[in-house]
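Design a sequence for this backbone.
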């Protein structure tokens, strides 16, 4: 019962002490001044404490002290201010090599550091600051890991928003494409009779819709996420004979990606894709490298392939993208892409431009447009956009 009552008293004192306006003073000098003339000054409690200059992040800080005339001390405590500016109090208790310890919890030890003072209440009710003061706290630097510092700086730059959700859509038209290999006519095909051959002609176009989620740890693993989407359209698929339905192509896909930070200005991103096409199940991979500021101006070089080995082919694409910061809220990106997606007989070239605009409150939009062709004699427009929300 006595122990429980004493613990409650310590807690109550630590809480109440935060609201008391302690003023630093020399307790011995004050006692001497108060003593009557000719009378020896009464003993004054003193605290011996070796100040601590630095600490480890998320690791408790143990403060040790020894007391002179401990019989005159009712309570002694550490008042500290954490990185958020909050003032808290911890009472000294018996322990340690010097007789008394106070332990500042690990959760308070965050960069750039904390500050503390030691305060004493005597048995006669006198209160004073025995080491430092609330007005002039003793500083303790918290030395954080370099990776932690980089993460904190990047997160601050991103406004504390680690997650990004996005929806995107795009239309791609390659114009009318004529094949280079003649194929037999199909039964009932207009303008072509059985036994004849003809160069196939298709109005190549497709659209893509997808949704994605990204999480940003901002450490060695800089980002990871996934996306789901569909592709539908028409393409000059290599066939042994004409078949209008087989020129219709499609893809339902899912992809998981992860981005690694090799250096501050060099990131490597890998992606694994799985999909169901109009002719079967496919798997795929994607790899890209980012050179420059990952959230600013940078060059991206990469490729993507769906239909690895004997799985159902969908195509490949090789691309380069240059992101250029054009203002506080604008990013301009010229893009060059070479691709035979979706299921095309030949590669085509896409020349695109994209503009990203930060709207504020975590919202941003991207719009893109351009031109692409598989033959020099024919091509078509491409356009699309996306909406992103970071939180």
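Sequence:
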């Amino acid at each position: 019962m006595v122990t429980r009552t004493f613990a409650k008293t310590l807690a109550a004192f630590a809480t109440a002490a935060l609201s008391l306006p302690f003023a630093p003073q020399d307790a011995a000098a004050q006692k001497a001044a108060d003593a009557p003339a000719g009378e020896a000054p009464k003993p004054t409690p003193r605290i011996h404490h070796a100040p601590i200059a630095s600490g480890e992040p998320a690791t408790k800080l143990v403060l040790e002290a020894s007391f002179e005339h401990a019989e005159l001390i009712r309570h002694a405590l550490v008042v500290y201010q954490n990185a958020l500016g909050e003032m808290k109090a911890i009472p000294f208790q018996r322990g340690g090599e010097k007789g008394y310890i106070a332990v500042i919890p690990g959760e308070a030890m965050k960069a750039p550091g904390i500050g503390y003072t030691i305060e004493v209440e005597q048995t006669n009710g006198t209160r004073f600051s025995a080491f430092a003061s609330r007005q002039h706290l003793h500083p303790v630097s918290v030395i954080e890991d370099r990776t932690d510092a980089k993460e904190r700086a990047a997160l601050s730059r991103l406004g504390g928003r680690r997650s990004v959700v996005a929806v995107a859509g795009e239309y791609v038209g390659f114009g009318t494409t004529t094949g280079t290999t003649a194929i037999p006519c199909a039964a009932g095909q207009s303008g072509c009779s059985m036994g004849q051959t003809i160069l196939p002609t298709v109005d190549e176009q497709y659209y893509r819709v997808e949704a994605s989620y990204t999480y940003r740890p901002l450490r060695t693993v800089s980002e990871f996420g996934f996306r789901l989407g569909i592709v539908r359209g028409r393409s000059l698929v290599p066939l042994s004979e004409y078949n209008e339905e087989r020129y219709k192509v499609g893809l339902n896909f899912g992809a998981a990606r992860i981005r690694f930070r090799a250096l501050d200005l060099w990131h490597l991103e890998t992606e694994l894709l799985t999909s169901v096409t109009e002719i079967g199940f496919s798997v795929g991979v994607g790899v890209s490298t980012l050179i420059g500021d990952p959230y600013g101006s940078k060059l991206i070089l990469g490729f993507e392939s769906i239909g690895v080995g004997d799985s159902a082919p969908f195509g490949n694409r090789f691309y380069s993208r240059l992101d250029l910061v054009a203002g506080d809220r604008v990013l301009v990106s010229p893009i060059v892409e070479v691709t035979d997606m979706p299921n095309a007989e030949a590669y085509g070239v896409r020349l695109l431009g994209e503009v990203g605009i930060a709207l504020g409150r975590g919202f941003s939009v991207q719009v893109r447009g351009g031109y692409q062709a598989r033959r020099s004699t024919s091509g078509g427009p491409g356009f699309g956009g996306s909406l992103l929300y970071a939180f």
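The chain is about 10% helix and 55% strand.
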